[in-house]
Predict the 3D structure of the following.
Amino acid sequence: MTAAMSESDMPDWEKRFRAPRVSLPDWAEDAPDRSLFVSNATGTYELYAWDRAGGEQRQATNRPNGTTDGLLSPDGAWIWWFDDKDGDEFGVWRRQPFEGGPDEPAAPGLEPSYPSGLALGRDGRTAVVGRSTDDEGTSIYLVGAGPEPLEIYRHHESAGVGDLSHDGSLIAIEHTEHGDAMHSALRVVRPDGTTVAELDDTEGGTEELGLEVLGFAPVEGDPRLLIGHQRRGRWEPLVWDVATGEQTDLTLDLPGDVSAEWYPDGSALLVAHSHKARSELFRYELATRALTRIPTPPGSVSGATARPDGTVEYLWSSAAEPPVVRSTTGEIVLDPPGMKCPPSVPVEDAWVEGPGGAIHALIQKPVGATGPLPTVFDLHGGPTWHDSDGFAAGPAAWVDHGYAVVRINYRGSTGYGRAWTDALKHRVGLIELEDVAAVRDWAVESGLADPDRLVLTGGSWGGYLTLLGLGTQPGSWAVGIAVVPVADYVTAYHDEMESLKAMDRTLLGGTPEEVPDRFAASSPLTYVDDVKAPVYISAGLNDPRCPIRQIDNYVHRLAARSAPHEVYRYDAGHGSLVVDERIKQLRLEMDFAQRHLNGATAEASV
């Protein structure tokens, strides 16, 4: 908080960013009173150690750009955290004692890389470390079992560590050796790298289906692996005995995407069900196949874990109510001190018929407001993600300033079945924008949105769609605000991290050299000269996902024809973990929109 402004003088939208928040605590399997969580209590998101028995909480990391990627060892003795440079996601793992002490290299002998998964052994010494680089692809190492890291896997396609079995004898790996970066296959290996079992749903059919590792059974000597599959057109769990090959399909009678994790004794599963932008929890008994709903308020559960005593802790929020860590005991598990987060307004559902089927949109608007309103179309990132009835400080800020906010789960979004998610292939960006256009037309025709005061915005993939939409739908938008976007698809491909190159090859069917027409059709740079609306762009100087050079290429084209635009560059990666920086960026975005919607024309700023 700035010294110039007291809490009583601070607007609610800013309080929502500054109010201390906590993540769902991760607890040590063999020392459940020891937990690790993320909080922004200092103004920067960092890792915290929490001794539940004594109640003490300790800030474990302290870096200028923040830290959120960490893991607690099963014995509770060590905190592992990823140390990247300037938020560029390229770095090394370090560790420190749970009680505190100096950090030390956690995997000596491994050079800096992008992280590709981590699993920690119960003995407090061994770990399975995944790493990837642009030149070498993915490699996976067993560390701590000998004097030097032992390489157990390597491939030029993307892969990652799935899990390590309770006794350390089995390692699950997700890989895309078949070349489809959006649909993983599974391999289970021994600590020496020899293969025990394979499961690949991409083989033997015309459709490629994905698999994901959800975790080994938390029981000594138990070879059961919980996995997610898409065999019926949506995500569902099954239990795979990697020793016998037996697969136990759960066939849950739930309409949406389903994920799960083990209860600590291995007898039941904690099931998370996501459907129509809401989520709910269940307990599934493996012996009886009984499914029992766990009561949670309407809204979204963004994480849940079953404790050894059978209770469940979960992180819950709704569009109106800020996030809170609850327990099935009825208690609040972790309530950070300090400023309380103000509520916002509930979300309303709209279903709009589009060219690919019914599109789900989530609407927020100021209390008592009637249209037509200035309206922000806020497009989510991913693309394999979806907006939900969950708390979000950004949309709430726009609502506080008198805007309606429309969030769209366009084709490519998760949560509506595999066909919906996979629909954008080959016509990347253009498919999603067909759905955005349909919802835009509905919002105008319904009287919600003022057609002369429409803001198109989004971050990451949403920023990409913003720039592409401004060029392909130039008469539809009054202002465009693109946050860490893809702007020049070809240059972005050549500069981005390898795992994203693999995803782009999957989406577009090849490299820019192999399918140049597809890259051109999907690149905002192709349409930059058609852009009419004023454009605001924010970009991280160290971003490995949407690198700065391709954004500069787009900006130079805007400047060449004196198109109204502003650019804000900040010294971090794909977004910021610093609260002050997040507030600064949103303030700049809202100011840009206000000036241009009111008819002001600013000079181009590079």
Q: What stands out?
A: The radius of gyration is 24 Å. The first strand starts at residue 26 and ends at 28. Confidence is low (pLDDT under 50) at residues 600-606. Residues 579-597 form the longest helix (19 residues).
